[in-house]
Design a protein that fits this description.
The chain is of the alpha+beta class. The protein is built from seven helices and 13 strands. It binds guanosine-5'-diphosphate and manganese (II) ion (2 copies). Keywords: GTP-binding, Ligase, Magnesium, Manganese, Metal-binding, Nucleotide-binding, Potassium.
Length: about 250
């Protein structure tokens, strides 16, 4: 496979038709996977906000106070309120806000960005990124897959990389269970998160700063003859790391 950025995309504004803007600049082929940074999906969907729109409730004030207490960091309670409103669960409140967002993705600050916002104070994640991906897919003439991505940190390792928030036109994962390795052993647990791997590939090409390349086409990727799986986000029930975090409180470094 190979991956290339779609060049010449303008600054994206609310109401822009991303599919049309991409189609004008890329000669898409059936089987391509079009990876779109959530930043521009959010801008097109008008998901910008100002801090003044958020009135801090008691929980936001408490989070800001606790953070100042244990880390010395002054967090704007209005920002904490924005995160609370965007999150389906606040898993950790210090030393940073670890949240689950509406699509199931777990990340810091409910994925709210303060860079590449097009001048707005805050850029919120697309509300339903799978629907965003399906809409973009429907607007493209070729039979393509679409992955809406975001740059995200991860536990256990330094550095960020791209992850998938929503996708359309391809399964989330490639299920290797029941297939054999080179020694004839049957694979028992391997379900490969293909959309995350495509998102990481796209993120590598996109860059993080002012490159201006939010859309990356992955061409000739072959899903192969495997079962597909739609599961990407763990349910809380089977996620023991997340359960442990719920019971843990940060009390200073
Ligand atoms: P995120 O990973 O989805 O949070 O997005 P980033 O802020 O990291 O941006 C990803 C890529 O898209 C970078 O190359 C940015 O320069 C670019 N980008 C962000 N917004 C725009 C935009 O409105 N227009 C264009 N052409 N590029 C943008
Ligand atoms: Mn982001
Ligand atoms: Mn990024």
């Amino acid at each position: 496979m190979h991956a290339f950025a779609v060049d010449g995309l303008p600054e994206i504004d609310a109401g822009d038709d991303l599919a049309a803007l991409v189609a004008e600049r890329a000669d898409l082929t059936d089987g391509d996977v079009v990876c779109v940074a959530s930043t521009v999906v959010s801008k097109a969907e008008g998901r910008t906000a100002a801090l003044a729109e958020f009135t801090p409730g008691p929980r936001a004030e408490e989070i800001a106070a606790r953070l100042a207490d244990v880390t010395g960091e002054q967090k704007d309670p209005r920002f904490a309120q924005a995160v609370i409103e965007e999150a389906t669960e606040v898993i950790m409140d210090a030393p940073f806000l670890l949240t689950e967002t509406t699509c199931g993705h777990v990340g810091v600050n409910a994925g709210i960005d303060r860079s590449n916002t097009g001048g707005a104070e805050l850029l919120l994640l697309p509300k339903r990124p799978a629907e965003s991906a399906a809409r973009i897919q429907a607007g493209l003439a070729a039979d393509v897959g679409v992955v809406v991505t975001d740059t995200s940190g991860r536990p256990f390792r330094h550095g960020q990389r791209g992850v998938a928030l929503g996708w359309a036109g391809l399964p989330a994962a490639r299920d290797w269970r029941g297939e054999t390795d080179r020694d004839g052993h049957e694979l028992a647990v391997t379900v490969e998160a293909v959309v995350d791997e495509l998102a990481a590939t796209a993120n590598l090409v996109s860059g993080e700063g002012d490159d201006g390349t939010p859309v990356v086409v992955v061409r000739e990727f072959e899903f192969g003859d495997h079962d597909g799986s739609e599961q990407l986000f763990r349910a809380v029930d089977g996620d023991f790391v997340r359960q442990a975090l719920r019971d843990w409180t940060f009390d200073g470094a």
